[in-house]
Amino acid sequence: MQRAKQQLTVLQALMAADGPLSARELWSRLSGTGVGIATVYRALQRGVEEGTLESVEVLGGGVRYEPKDREHHHHFLCSICNHAFDLFGCVEGLESLVPNGFRMTGHEVVLLGTCDACGNAA
Amino acid sequence: MQRAKQQLTVLQALMAADGPLSARELWSRLSGTGVGIATVYRALQRGVEEGTLESVEVLGGGVRYEPKDREHHHHFLCSICNHAFDLFGCVEGLESLVPNGFRMTGHEVVLLGTCDACGNAA
DNA sequence: CAAGAACTGATAATCGAGTATCATTTCTCC
DNA sequence: GGAGAAATGATACTCGATTATCAGTTCTTG
User: Fold this and answer.
1) How does DSSP classify residue B71?
2) How does pLDDT run across B51-91, given as a tens digit for each residue?
């Protein structure tokens, strides 16, 4: 296999995903390419340093990574395959939840349930 | 100090909190009582088994625990003190985010920012 | 008070995520 | 092609969270 281009392989796999991926998830999608787990971590770390990637925390899966140029969005976590899917749109009424004296600078929304594939397979 | 009632001490501290606590956070609130970290974990584990406690995942703090009898609510995570506060109320428009074929069974909302105390101290 | 069960705190052991290291391999630029 | 820099994969290592272990303590029931 060719080497020295593995980081590119890693990033392309992440760009092609339909949601944020953890280092392990990403690595498992690269089985067969010979890419080592260390290279996956290196590519992710560099991507974050260079500002092209962003680390996000969904639930139950630790830190995941996604391209930073995506619009504001949230995620759907499938309880069966444990994959996080990108969603589009946002919600209303967040401000009314903030207690007096608190200052909100951001928010995260995660929907839980079963994805299309897992729901049909069940 | 009296013993054999330490688990009760642990649970009372958790009930009195204004948000979910991790095992460490809970333990640190018990400094001075002589309760060991192992007893904290035991109390939490038992509470979950017995159905009085629930483990929740907020962000950036691993697993936290809270009484299970609380109303549906969400959390505010202070980026300075890293404490999670209970919120009251919920949001609108979640259903519209769900992709076709997906089934939503639950949701999590986390607001990020600074709490009253930290915002004033800054 | 006695005996056995349950509880406790300290700490060793385990586990997984992420990082550091190192010998090789590949690339770049001449 | 050659030299040095950068990248790579395997793996050892680190670090923190959680669990297991164990000797000593406390409780319960009579």
Assistant:
1) P
2) 999 999 998 778 999 999 999 999 999 999 999 999 999 99
